[in-house]
Fold this sequence. Notes:
heterotrimer, A: 160 residues, alpha+beta, Ubiquitin-like (UB roll), DNA polymerase, domain 1, 2 domains, five-stranded mixed beta sheet, 5 helices, 17% strand, C: 335 residues, Uridine Diphospho-n-acetylenolpyruvylglucosamine Reductase, domain 3, four-stranded antiparallel beta sheet, binds iron/sulfur cluster
Amino acid sequence: MEKTINLTVNGETRSIAVDVNQTLLEVLREDLGLTGTKKGCNQGECGACTVLMDGKPVSSCLVLAVKADGKTVMTIEGVAKDGSLHPIQETFNQKGAIQCGFCTPGMILTTKNLLDKNPNPSLGEIKEAISGNICRCTGYVQIIEAITSLAKEKNARGGV
Amino acid sequence: MTDYKVVGKGLPRIDGPAKAMGKAIYTVDVNLPGMLYGKILRSPYPHARILNIDTTAAEQLPGVKFIMTGKDVGDVRYAFVDTPRYPADEHPLAIDKVCYIGDEVAAVAAVSETVAEKALSLIKVEYEILPGVFTVEEAMKPDAPLIHEELLEGTSAWEDWGVAQKKQQREAEINVNNMSGHSAISFGDVEQGFKDSDYVREDKFELKATAHCQMEPHAAVASYDPVEDKLHMWLSTQGIFLKRFLLSKTFKMPIGKIRIHHTFVGGAFGGKIDLFPYEFCAAYMSMKLGQPVKIELEREEVFMATRQRHPMVIKVKTGIKKDGTILAQDIKVIADNGGYRGSGPIVVFLCHGFSFPIYNVPNYRYEGFSIYTNSGIRGPQRGHGAPQIRFSIDSHLDLIARDLGMDSVDIMLKNIRHQGDLLPNGDRLNSCGLKECLEGAAKSIDWENKRMQFKAQPQEGRYKTGVGISLCAMFSGAMYYPFASAAIVKMHDDGTATLFTGAQDIGQGSYTTLSQVLAEELGIGLEDVHLVAGDTELCPIDIGSFLSGTALVTGSAVKLAAADAKRQLLECAVEVLGVDDIGELETQDKRIFVKDDPEKSISFTQAIQTSVFKKGGNPIIGTGSYKGYSETDRYPSLAKCKGLFTGAYGFAAHAAEVEVDILTGKVKLLKAVTYHDCGFSLNKTIVEGQVHGCVSMGAGQAISEEIVLEKGQLFNASFLNYQIPISLETPESVDQLVATYEPTGPFGAKEVGEGALAGILGAIGNAVHDAIGVRVYSLPITPEKVLRALKN
Amino acid sequence: MRLPEFIYHEPENLQEATNLISEFNGRYGIIAGGTDLMVKMKQRLQNSQYLISLDRIPALKTIKEKADNIIIGSMNTLDDIVNSEIIKEKLPCLKQAAWEVGSPLLRSVATIGGNICLNTRCRFYNQSYFWRSSRETCCKAGGHVCHVTNQEDACYSTFVADTVPALIAYDASIKLVGVDKTRKLSLADFYTGDGRMPNQILKGSNEILTEIEIPIPKDDIRSVYHKFRVRESIDFPLVGVAVMMKGIEEKHCQDARVVFTGVGSAPVEAKLAREKIIGQQLTPDLILEVATMAVSELHPVKTDLMSPNYKRGIAQVLVEKALRDVGGVNNGKDD
Ligand SMILES: Cc1cc2nc3c(=O)[nH]c(=O)nc-3n(C[C@H](O)[C@H](O)[C@H](O)COP(=O)(O)OP(=O)(O)OC[C@H]3O[C@@H](n4cnc5c(N)ncnc54)[C@H](O)[C@@H]3O)c2cc1C
Ligand code: SF4
Ligand code: FES
Ligand code: FES
């Protein structure tokens, strides 16, 4: 069964015909070519497929594409503006928070959501926020350092 | 130390921006026009004979393009180990028998994943279920069912290359059922050593299988072009040249007819070296159809049917003098390699290889067996044998220290090896920071004050803390096809350079560190380096990213290539700058200077122009190659553990502080200290990242990670049930580089990335004992085991 | 595996939804957040011909105070619960339980209704289609054997939802709406205790859970939820317990509820323990006795990777701690 949905992806509103049994992850990767969103488990257990739906981080492998009808979705491809890295992306790279990079898109989007709603997270809040995003390479140390330094930077600039 | 401009700095990785933006293309992201989707049908039984496979219904399903079974490719064999003694025992698809749950039985290519999945459910396989063996004890029994009955013939890359003798005699003397590999060695007189000892103790340790958990699932895209008769592949792999070699061997195709293209690799940890059936099948079906075929494994398949770490039973017996001098040691290792040989013979060899470089034991005996069972295949995983053997030996020494009322660090210090030592096999420790690592780690964890807390004064309350320490060693590259790495440095008119390397960046940062080596040697900035990597057609041969060889072997090749380019540049400058010899010149910032008169200089661009006009049009291309081995004919023997093993050993000491909840049995790693001797750190940020990653993986394997099997069936093939560490468990992580200088490595660098894992297991095990006063002899140290140990 | 095929409906009001339910009797699934259902469908544990989404029914998304009750629409996400001011203030134990479900990525879409209706779990059942094909189909999946107990036609799969113990401790009731009938029942009565069909909706009542009604606790009520799992995110509870206590002035307990998850095929309320504690003065000894009694009422079976004995031990630790927490009894060394 097909259905046409209206989806705003990375600021662009589009009308797409999807199969109702397609997940949002499949539509993003296969139909829209947004392969930056990764599939690590396909069962909601790893966070590699994280996207922001109406601003909130969700595992897109568990979301039916039809459920995103009328919603706003941000994928990793929408984070950098005008070809230059977003401060989160920049800091992740500076601090060594990226190794193989497979968890990175999800990790960055989760971080974005955290800092958007809480510019001054504590260490505990940082660890909690990314606790659904698994990274095998980094042991999280440099990811946590990167987010901590972003929080500090934001504070120094006076909020968001 | 020399004042380096590019190496030794914590520069951000060059592939970081692409990865941060989601632009980095991994194999799973490769989409080609007309691409078909493949799926693998697997055996649901651990041991069974295939009586019949009926594919008729599946063939009739619209959208199905190809179905292959073992009959199509019956004679094809390959394996990680393929020698006369240990011939290859894997087939892309089972012929008449399956040996573990997940064993490949058939493959399908269809127009979509959905159709391919449906087709699998329509293939009817008739099995006759055979009795299985699920533990090494069962498997070794004289009357145990045999998993592989027939004796096969094999040849290895070594023989093909003439670097090893042909046809050795099979070992007839060892008569153990289901044995897939055997290593044995001894030196000194072990029995006498025990007799001369003041104290002798024997312990048995057990370690469970663990999973790599690379976040990117295994995947392959194959595209055969009938017009050029060429097979193009995109693979998630650690070594493109090894894969190409194995593909060429299995397809009996000239090696030049296969091209592996670059993709990023979403983690590997040793689990993406072997040739896998899904890769073979994708290629085979693409060749039959003339259309691209993609096969992407599901997470469950990755857990079940790629590779796992070998579960082991390890016995260690040590004789020691009152003053702590180890006189004799007897080690027995039994590794379970699953339904196929995998890396069984290698891991039992490596357990020796990672045991003997640490302590100087005059009387030593080692014997290792790898054994077939009807469970998933075991292969290399970060450290490959080191975590198991290091955990066992250092747990055992800690127990001895406790028995004798001694400080285990004192015992370690008394027996460790030092720089300059000649190992029994002939390897020399040209660099060895073991002592500094051990002392540093002990100090950092506050060893003197914190150890033996449970004894000194019972800790109040529910949470007990303790500290532990352990050591490890790792090879920096070893003998494996293609044995060597080469690199090309191509100069551009603007003075920048392109590095061509066949190395794979599997997340360990090799693209960045190799580019740094180039930049430093040539005298340009990191931003002046362009990179072409990971493509068998465009890049020179490379040893691959395993056995920790990239930094040392490929790094050396890159350095030589850069030096070659630099020499050519300098030769052009000699005349222009009016000096006598290139020794009077130096480079920096894409310019060539006269050392004594820096005002006199020309740009690389000018030098290149000079070269083009005066040197037969030479635009300057530097080349270099390096073999991880000195020129020798003493190649290592797996069975006899003789010969030279590696050019350089990396060392580390780990200290851990844990907190044990004695009511629930939960162990929490509070602090992990790693003192790591990687020679010279080419990139501080990257090396730290490797260490943190190792600590996390090691901690997971010490505390919570375990492949749970019942009669060969895997109960936790998911991230929900296979418990790999999450952010909330991140300990305070201290890492300190102990800078030694490895004379054979680029800028003195050697391995990092594997060794930093092995010691953390023993450190945690010892820390748990320190906290609660009792030992848990098997890993992982689960809450239930802690409570059981406390009860007894 | 990818999702199987189905026909998708998005009714815009309850009437429409219940009409569809009665029309598709037995061949439909209800999807709320989908965090459980999507996995089940990928694993082919559920193969509904029709999916009915509750997304577009605004009435199910409110949280409001009405008279002496708090009414929570079933389609509120667990994030909505955690962030709701009323719930934070009046139902801290529910907030705590909701916050401990899965990981942040799940709580942003998982609903409280889905949590209440969550199917029971078992290590032989919650596996892929391929995995299950190695063995005979078990009772819960439609066969006749049980791989845990080797009994026929009996299933002991385990109830593991986190929010339910808290809700039962608060004496919550739920509203179930069918095509021509609406009923209210106490949440505890919603569960059958039969692992095959653990609640009334799963048993086939053709109803939708629309709202949860919770009497606003009086000021003298204190409650906590303690969850034990190996990792403090992602994982389901191995054991969870909600403890509510009333009137602990002077350390005399007027009433108490102790409700577990993770130890049976339904949420388990420790009734003997309740009787034991009422009217008593809380002392460390009494707490130990009550906890031991509570645990004696639990009969977990090995449906996950931990042994039943271990789970009982954990239950003991959790209840003791919870009783001490709500009772304000501090024994110093174990906390
Ligand atoms: C990795 C992972 C970890 C998890 N960890 C936890 C955990 O720690 N604790 C926990 O409790 N759960 C956990 N869950 C399970 C699940 O995410 C939650 O229970 C969640 O609250 C379910 O809500 P949902 O809206 O997503 O339900 P859905 O998946 O939409 O539905 C679940 C079931 O309830 C039925 N249903 C839903 N709403 C209604 C309604 N209004 N009327 C009638 N029937 C309805 C559906 O038909 C279905 O059978 C986890 C899941 C995953 C994938
Ligand atoms: S308890 Fe028995 S019947 Fe129930 S799901 Fe588990 S194996 Fe199946
Ligand atoms: S791929 Fe969606 S959570 Fe793992
Ligand atoms: S960087 Fe590899 S999984 Fe996180």
